[in-house]
Write a structure and sequence with these properties.
Alpha-Beta Plaits; binds flavin-adenine dinucleotide
Length: about 325
């Protein structure tokens, strides 16, 4: 216990720099130089006695959980930002200050917004050009619409193909990195149902066979069976079958799980969007912020805000306050 207290004392001075991350986005984060290193390196450099393993696991899980080295260059600022979301009192604009289950994801938000605004659903944007302060959007075949302002709220790698990017935009957009991720759902008998479980071994060693990185019990589906969601310890599109085989072995060996049935899965190649630590140190967020408003264009979304719906919305509210009120 006393070693835990010594670790807490070592971490205490960092609280001040961590608190500065509570503001929306990463404006001025480059001043926080000692936090802009990969999180495993940051934790190692603290020379902690007992909480280092716990901190590593928490950062990995906060960031989605994956396999050894998948998060080799994920700066400490990223998992901290996600962790901070849980400490923050949300503005009342954010679902009355509560973190609520949103069954349809952003669709529910758009359903509400579309009652007052002109929203075009189910339309794929294929080209965006900005001429003389006029934004021309081509979508759904050859249809075009014109606007005064453009707010880009999606993956920037895709934007490189459809937007008439400036040199500045191209430089920043091309530096966005991703770590692919698999989300899967399975049903099983005889697995724990009391809590979410995380397997640390594969996060810590390259010698451990990749398998599911943990599981969350979602609800009983009858006959002693439970439905579980999980993130697989796999970052590429290939290798799914092997990871499922390893996962079954792990669940059977450690929990005596039976009747495991994998019911659904999806691969997200563009998960965990981030900038490399060296880019953050070089002030990429400041350069990005300086672009806000140029060519009547604004940028929101997880690359600027941090991952999660809550952080993305906080950043969007802040952008409205800064430029549109
Ligand atoms: C598997 C998974 C699980 C997650 N779990 C959680 C969670 O539990 N809680 C949480 O808070 N966050 C979670 N996240 C993270 C969260 O979903 C993202 O951080 C958040 O959605 C990012 O918001 P965004 O506005 O940047 O982009 P997005 O939500 O990705 O929105 C971009 C939108 O732009 C659209 N788009 C892109 N290109 C075009 C085009 N050419 N034409 C028309 N439309 C286009 C896309 O279809 C998409 O709807 C999860 C993410 C994933 C992938």
């Amino acid at each position: 216990m006393h070693l835990f207290i010594l670790d807490a004392i070592k971490l205490m001075p960092w609280l001040v720099s961590i608190i500065s991350l509570m503001k929306p986005g990463y404006k001025n984060v480059k001043n926080n130089k000692k936090l802009i290193v990969p999180f495993a390196e940051w934790i190692k450099d603290r020379n902690l006695y007992v909480v280092d393993r716990f901190l590593n696991a928490t950062c990995s899980v906060a960031y989605g959980g994956a396999v050894y080295s998948a998060f080799e260059d994920i700066s400490m600022i990223y998992p901290l930002k996600i962790g901070i979301l849980d400490l923050k009192t949300r503005p009342t604009t954010y679902f009355h200050g509560n973190l609520s289950q949103i069954n349809e994801g952003y669709q529910e938000v758009w359903n509400v917004i579309s009652k007052k605004h002109n929203i075009i659903f189910k339309s794929n944007i294929t080209n965006i050009s900005r001429d003389q302060n006029k934004i021309v959007i081509k979508h759904s075949g050859d249809e075009t619409s014109e606007y005064d302002y453009l707010i880009i709220a999606c993956n920037l790698t895709g934007m490189l193909e459809i937007l008439d990017t400036t040199e500045e935009e191209e430089e920043i957009f091309s530096k966005v990195k991703h770590v692919g991720s698999w989300k899967a759902v399975f049903i099983a008998k005889d697995l724990p149902t009391d809590a979410g479980y995380v397997f640390l071994d594969q996060l810590e060693s390259p010698d451990v066979k990749p398998a599911l990185s943990g599981f969350i019990p979602e609800g009983q589906v009858g006959d002693g069976k439970y439905l579980y969601t999980t993130v697989l310890g796999l970052t590429t599109e290939d290798g799914f079958e092997e990871v499922i085989k390893n996962s079954n072995e792990l669940l059977e060996e450690h929990f005596n799980a039976s009747e495991i049935e994998w019911v659904d899965n999806t691969y997200w190649p563009e998960y965990h969007s981030h900038f490399e630590s060296k880019e953050i140190k070089n002030g990429i967020f400041d350069k990005f912020e300086l672009m806000q408003g140029k060519n009547n264009t604004f940028y929101v979304g997880e690359i600027l805000s941090g991952i999660s719906n809550g952080l993305s919305m906080d950043y969007s509210f802040d952008l409205v306050d800064r430029f549109f009120v």
